Amino acid sequence: MQALLEHFILQSAMYSLIAVALVAFLESLALVGLILPGTVMMAGLGALIGGGELNFWHAWLAGIVGCLLGDWISFWLGWRFKKPLHRWSFVKKHKALLDKTEHALHQHSMFTILVGRFVGPTRPLVPMVAGMLDLPIGKFLTPNLIGCVLWPPLYLLPGILAGAAIDIPAGMQSGSFRWLLLAAALLLWLGGWLGWRLWRSGKAAADRLTPYLSRGRLHWLAPLVLGAGIVALVALIRHPLMPTYIDILQKVVGYPAA
C-alpha cells in the first residue's frame, strides 16, 4: 500500500490528492483503520503540502471526501451486517473495544461520534457500531460531518510543519531552529498525552503502561513535560528564523489561485 501511494505521489498533484482521499477513506473504513498506519501516512502527505508540492485547500477537501465515504460505508456495513459481524473472528478479537464503543454511544452518542473521529482505535469502529445499533441518521450526520471537516488538517499538520521547516534556507541557525521545532512539537504532544492519561487514570482499566505511569507519577510528570514543551515553544517563537518560517506557512495555506 505504501509503495503504491509513493508511486502515485511521484506522478502528479492529482495523484497526490487521490492518495490523501484514499488514506482518509481507508483510515475511516470499518476495522481496516485498525491495521493501517494512516496517521503516519497523513503526516507524510502533509509534508508535501509543507514543501509546496500540494495545495493545502485541495488536500483538505480530498481528506473530507475520503473521510465521509469511509464513515458512511462503515455505518452502512454495521447496519446491514450486524448479525454476521458479531460472529466474525476479527470482531471477536476486538470485542472489549467494541463493547466500550457501544457503551459510549448509548451514553453520549453525538459526543462519541465527534470525539471518536480523533481517537485512533475508535475512529474506524464508531460509525460501524453506530450502524449496528441502528442509530438514527439524524444523530449520526451532524457530529460526523463536523469531525470529517476538522480531522484532515489536524492529521496533516505535523507533516505540514515539518515540510515547511525543510524549506527554510540553509545557514542562519536553520539547524537549531529545526531541532527546536521538533523538541517543542514532541514535548507538547507528549505532555498532552500524559495529561490525557492522568485525566482517565481514575476511570479506565489498567493497561501495559500503568505500572510505569501510575497516577501518582503522572501528577508530576505530565505538568513537567508540558512545561518543558511550553518553554521550548517560547524559545521557538523568539528564534530569529520564526518570521521566515511564518512566511513559508502563510504561503502554504494561501488560498488557491482562481
Structure summarized in a few sentences:
The chain has 258 residues and is an all-alpha fold. 75% of the residues lie in helices and 0% in strands. The mean pLDDT is 83.
Provide a descriptive summary of the structure in words.
The protein has 258 residues and is an all-alpha fold. It folds into two domains: 168 residues, no CATH class; 72 residues. 75% of the residues lie in helices and 0% in strands. It contains 13 helices and no strands. Helix 10 crosses helix 13. The longest helix has 30 residues. The chain is globular. It starts with a helix and ends in a 6-residue tail after the last helix. The model has no long low-confidence stretch (mean pLDDT 83). It is a multi-pass membrane protein. Keywords: Cell inner membrane, Cell membrane, Membrane, Transmembrane, Transmembrane helix.
Topology (SSEs and partners):
Layout: H1 2-11, H2 13-28, H3 38-50, H4 56-80, H5 82-87, H6 89-93, H7 95-107, H8 109-116, H9 126-132, H10 137-166, H11 174-200, H12 215-237, H13 242-252
Strand content: under 5%
Q: How much helix, percentage-wise, in residues?
A: over 70%
Following the backbone from N to C, one meets helices and strands in this order, namely HHHHHHHHHHHHH
Terminal residue distance? 34 Å
Task: Report the uncertain regions.
Answer: none
Shape, principal axes of CA atoms? globular
Instruction: Count the E strands.
Output: 0
Overall pLDDT, averaged? 83
Return the structural class: mainly alpha
Number of alpha- plus pi-helical segments: 13
Number of domains: 2
Family: Belongs to the DedA family.
Domain VTT: 36-159
Subcellular location: Cell inner membrane; Cell membrane
GO cellular component, one term: plasma membrane
